[in-house]
Amino acid sequence: MKHFEWTDFVRGLVEESARVAMEGHLASGCRKCRHTADLLRKAAVAARSDSKVQVPEYAVRFARAIFILQLPEKVRLLPRAPARLLYDCFREPLPAGVRTQQGLSRQVLYQAGDYLLDLRLENERGSSRVALVGQIQNRKEPGKRLGGVLVLLVSEEHVLAQAVSNSLGEFQMEYAPTKRLRLYVPVRQAGKQIEVPLSRPVGPKAREGTAAAKKTPFWRKEQ
C-alpha cells in the first residue's frame, strides 16, 4: 500500500471498509507495512504535540523577514513612496552656551502617506559609524502594530544594513556614512515602500549646512 494511504489510516481518515482491510493486512504479519504504520503514528503524535506549542513572536517576525529577503525582486517592484520631512532638530537653534557635545545626534521625522517614520541618528565622538534607531507608525491608526517590517539601508545598489521592526514598529542598525544613502521600508499593508534619503551627515557640519539651507524649501533639497 502507498504511504499516503497509511497516513490517512493512522489519522483515522479512511472509510470503515478500508480501515478493516488495512488492519487485516497488518495482522497478516507484513513487516514493511507495520514499520510504515508505526513510523507514521509517531509522526502524527509529534505533529499534534507541536501544534500545542506557542511560537514566540520574535521567531515569527524573523521567519517573515527571511521570507521577504528571499523575494528581493518583489520588494523592488513595490511602488515608491517618497517621504516628506516634517521635523529636523538641526533646524532648531542650539541652547545658549552650548558649543560641543560628547556625542553628536540628530532627530528627524518623515511622513509618507498614512505613515510616520521617526529616526534618531547618533555618532559617538571619535567613531566613524552611525547608530540609527527608528520607529514606523500609522498616523491614522496609532494602535496598529507594524512588527516584522523589513528595513533596508541602501547605497547605490548595495544593501549596507538591514533590520526588522518589533511589535511596536521599532528598529535599529549601525552603518558607516557614505554618499547616496537611502532607507527603504517596504510596508506590505500599504503595498508601497517608503523611501527616505540619509545622505546628510550627523555632526556640526550638518547643522551648519541645514542652517544655510533654510532659504531653500526642504522638499527641493530632498529630491
Summarize the structure.
Helix content is 32%, strand content 31%.
Strand proportion, as a percent range, falls in 25-35%
Q: How confident is the prediction overall: mean pLDDT? A: 76
The share of residues in helices is 25-40%
- Biggest sheet, spatial arrangement of strands: 1-10-9-6-7
The radius of gyration is 28 Å
Q: What is the number of beta strands? A: 10
Taken in chain order, the helices and strands follow as HHHHHEEEEEEEEEEHH
Q: Give me the secondary-structure category.
A: alpha+beta
Contiguous low-pLDDT stretches (5 residues minimum) are 211-223
Tally of distinct domains: 2
The largest pleated sheet is described as: 5 strands, mixed
Q: Distance N terminus to C terminus?
A: 67 Å
Number of helices: 7
* Global shape: elongated
Q: How would the blueprint of this fold be written?
A:
Elements: H1 3-10, H2 16-27, H3 31-50, H4 57-69, H5 72-77, E1 80-82, E2 84-88, E3 103-112, E4 115-124, E5 130-138, E6 150-155, E7 158-164, E8 170-175, E9 181-187, E10 192-197, H6 204-212, H7 218-221
Parallel strand pairs: 1-10
Antiparallel strand pairs: 2-3, 3-4, 4-5, 5-8, 6-7, 6-9, 9-10
Helix pairs in contact: 1-3
Task: Describe this protein's structure.
The chain has 223 residues and is an alpha+beta fold. 32% of the residues lie in helices and 31% in strands. The strands form two sheets. It has a five-stranded mixed sheet. It has a five-stranded antiparallel sheet with strand order 2-3-4-5-8, with no helix packed on it. Helix 1 packs across helix 3 (31-50).
